[in-house]
């Protein structure tokens, strides 16, 4: 029988370390033989060896997978051998764009006893539990721009934010639907006081779609103020919808306040289901701790629950979620290795 194929791109730095634990837990939840895993050794080493980041043939092969699991790609920020952005744009963003992964879903949840940098006064307000719906294929990430008079004192560098009515509407609609299945509140975050064109489009479409969802309460925050509310009153958020770059920044902050970047999962969803969706931790390749065996694999593991949910295996997804929750609540301040955390969660599935 033909088993569904899952493409696995462990990538760079701690990527392979956390992906190994994610696969361990995924296989524990659904059995060794439910999926066929096909590994792709892409990333820094592959580029150094071949000069290629992702060729069209591999892209076409990935398109046939049921889903993609990604660790992380990217070199240390100061690297002199690998140009900044080469792997990020050439692999990660290429996949998000080529596979039209319009919704970048990033849940954030505080658990009882959470190790949060927030003050007790803020934590006493309750446990924050919200989802950022980040647009995944447009905005400043579109790669629209360039430089004039490169390398001269008169150089001009531009990145143009691309926002389409279709692209904004589908992600806004997704966020409203999600809010109806949660606590019924949706916050739009943008910066329409300055970005009047893109912001104007977002504002208009948000209002139009809101009219179709009378049961969802809505509000709006400029992104700078949103960063304040995240640390002073995070329980006010249920679902947040925002553009690609604002969503990138807010979700690192959201991770930091809800237990750390090592806990934050994400799903890059192709909502039309024409192409595979991709599941990855929010964090990067963490070159500063790569190879030490101390990376927290929880984010990568939680991303497997998002993967199973997307593929309709809700019961197995819930088991992973419950195992992760139990482990997080239990972990206290004990230092454990990457494999110890993976083993502990697998034992709870
Ligand atoms: P990063 O997320 O890799 O690391 C930020 C900080 O968080 C570091 O101190 C790191 O040690 C820590 N951290 C990250 N994940 C952790 C984990 N699982 N457990 C414990 N600590 C963890 O961000 P960065 O340093 O800005 O980026 C490093 C490289 O990764 C860059 O090349 C960047 O472009 C790339 N990147 C890739 C992805 C991706 O592939 N999805 C995402 C973000 C960054
Ligand atoms: C993320 C990362 C990526 C992004 C980078 C590495 C391109 O930071 O997934 O959050 O900005 O989307
Ligand atoms: Mn990011």
UniProtKB/TrEMBL annotation:
PROSITE patterns attached here?
A: IDH_IMDH
Pfam families with a match to the protein in the record: Iso_dh
Query: Needs which cofactor?
Result: Mg(2+); Mn(2+)
Q: Which InterPro entries match?
A: ICDH/IPMDH (IPR050501), IsoCit/isopropylmalate_DH_CS (IPR019818), IsoPropMal-DH-like_dom (IPR024084)
Q: Where is the Isopropylmalate dehydrogenase-like domain?
A: 5-345
Q: Which UniProt keywords apply?
A: Manganese, Metal-binding, NAD, Oxidoreductase
Q: Which GO terms describe its molecular function?
A: magnesium ion binding; NAD binding; oxidoreductase activity, acting on the CH-OH group of donors, NAD or NADP as acceptor
Lineage, uppermost ranks: Bacteria, Bacillati, Actinomycetota, Actinomycetes, Propionibacteriales
What is the name listed in the Swiss-Prot or TrEMBL entry for this protein? 3-isopropylmalate dehydrogenase
**Statement: the UniProt record of this protein carries the keyword Metal-binding:** yes
